[in-house]
Amino acid sequence: MIFEKLVKIAKGSKSTVAIGLGVEEKYPQRTIQAAETAAQKGMAKTIIVGNLEQAQKDYLKKEKIQFQSSKNPEETLLKMLTSGEVDSVVRGSLPATDFLKQAKTQFNVKNLRRIALLESANGNQFFFAPVGIDEGKTVQEKINFVSDGVNLLQKLEIYPKVAILSGGRAGDIGRDSAVDQTIRDAEEAVKTIKEKKITQNIQNYQILIEDAEKDKANLILAPDGISGNLIYRTLIHLGKGGSYGALYTNLPKTIIDTSRVAPIKEYVGAIIFASALKEATHKENQKTQP
């Protein structure tokens, strides 16, 4: 299982992970509890970054974690990351729009790609993308996501099994032009990915996401960001599934995204995800050094 592998790696890591603290009702308690749980389990040294002047003081009396106050926590978090003060960052309960804007500014990129680690109600774990509503709209973006996902799996020493989804079955061509385009895009993406030798272990599952899950694909690509976001929300909030955060794959530093309304399990998982990737990246760099 992917997450169990991350846990094993994180236990040997001495990384420092900073997590953002939103101050709206219910967010502080959940974020702080997650950071404390991860620290107590020895998964990482955790630092909470937020506008502590606006947070309830009784939340801040935790011995296992460090707090840092900032009136602009999104900017502070990312500056701590780029300066090397921390090894990785988890968005936590900070607002998505402000955080995404700061990430683009700090790393000078126009677009961001996120790959989430999800778990079905059956207990199958897989990387999933796109989850941002403005992501994954073109064939090239699909190829980029698969390339990023394959690299991530290989970094964790997991053999990739990739599933591409579309808006319908091949036999549905002609029913709707928008659906037709998703079917053609999926076919083109699979063909190009094989030609580029990104991976040969890839299959077009059309609209049959249930078959991809049953076959234990470990990287599943939705037709676009809107459908991907809906799949994520349905799985997590209605379908008894789980999430462990989403990695920003086109940045040089490790940042794990989380939903503000996510359960504590996702926050703890995201911290472990961030800690493990730091260690896995370090080991990979050691292998490539002469």
The percentage of residues in β strands lies in 15-25%
Radius of gyration of CA atoms, rounded to a whole number = 19 Å
| CATH architecture descriptor text of the largest domain | 3-Layer(aba) Sandwich
Major sheet: 11 strands, mixed
Q: Major sheet: order of its strands?
A: 3-2-1-4-11-10-5-6-9-7-8
Quaternary form: single chain
| Annotation, overall tally of beta strands | 11
Structural key phrases:
2 domains; eleven-stranded mixed β-sheet; 290 residues; Isopropylmalate Dehydrogenase; alpha/beta
Characterization of this structure:
The protein is of the alpha/beta class. The protein has 2 domains: 1-109 and 251-290, Rossmann fold; 111-242, Isopropylmalate Dehydrogenase, CATH 3.40.718. Helix content is 44%, strand content 18%. It is built from 9 helices and 11 strands. The protein has helices at residues 2-11, 27-40, 73-83, 96-107, 139-155, 177-195, 209-214, 225-238, 264-288, and strands at residues 16-21, 45-50, 66-69, 88-90, 114-119, 125-129, 162-165, 202-206, 219-221, 242-248, 254-257. It has an 11-stranded mixed β-sheet, sandwiched between helices. Helix 1 (2-11) packs across helix 9 and helix 2 (27-40) packs across helix 9 (264-288). The longest helix has 25 residues, at 264-288. The two termini are 32 Å apart. The mean pLDDT is 90.
